[in-house]
From TrEMBL:
The protein, known as: Translocating chain-associated membrane protein 1-like 1
Basic residues: compositionally biased ranges: 118-136
Residue span(s) of domain TLC: 2-102
Subcellular location: Membrane
Similarity remark: Belongs to the TRAM family.
Main location as per UniProt: membrane
Topology of the protein relative to the lipid bilayer: Multi-pass membrane protein
Residue segments, region Disordered: 113-136
Coiled-coil blocks: none
Transmembrane segments: 6-26, 38-60, 80-99
Length: 136
């Protein structure tokens, strides 16, 4: 499980590194927001990669190994209940992170649309004064 944990942590922390680098670039110049778009895309890909690797490892890889059984002294925890518990924990963690990500993106999208609507209201073209036609 140590190797799987390391393999799953590498994409997670690479995406987090990109996020923090994007924040640094944003603080230096507020017009640079391309890093956040790349981060959002890679965040979703990293979550899907994590889920895929977890299911393949816990569902198909570990059940085929020779040493099936529980042995605390040998460090062997390759039994169905522990495998499914670990898989459920990983899936729940990924679902929680995606839930927070989606809520964050929706909040950001709503704020952006409200800002755009308020800008349109303040910059709306003024109605031209009509010339009064005098009838004689």
């Amino acid at each position: 499980l140590h190797r799987l944990g390391l393999v799953l942590l590498v994409p997670h922390y690479l995406v987090e590194l990109l996020f923090h680098a994007s924040r640094l670039f944003y603080f230096s110049d507020e017009n640079k927001q391309k890093g956040f778009t790349l981060w959002a895309l890679l965040f979703v890909i990293a979550r899907l990669l994590t889920l895929t690797l977890s299911v393949l490892t816990f569902g198909f890889g570990l059940p085929r190994t020779e040493n099936q059984g529980f042995s605390l002294g040998d460090g062997n925890f390759n039994v169905l209940t522990i495998r499914m518990t670990c898989l459920a924990a990983i899936c729940l963690t990924q679902a929680w992170m995606m839930w927070k990500f989606i809520n964050f993106q929706l909040k950001k999208w709503r704020e952006h649309s409200q800002n755009q609507a308020s800008k349109k209201k303040t910059v709306s073209p003024k109605s031209k004064p009509h010339k009064r036609e005098t009838t004689r």
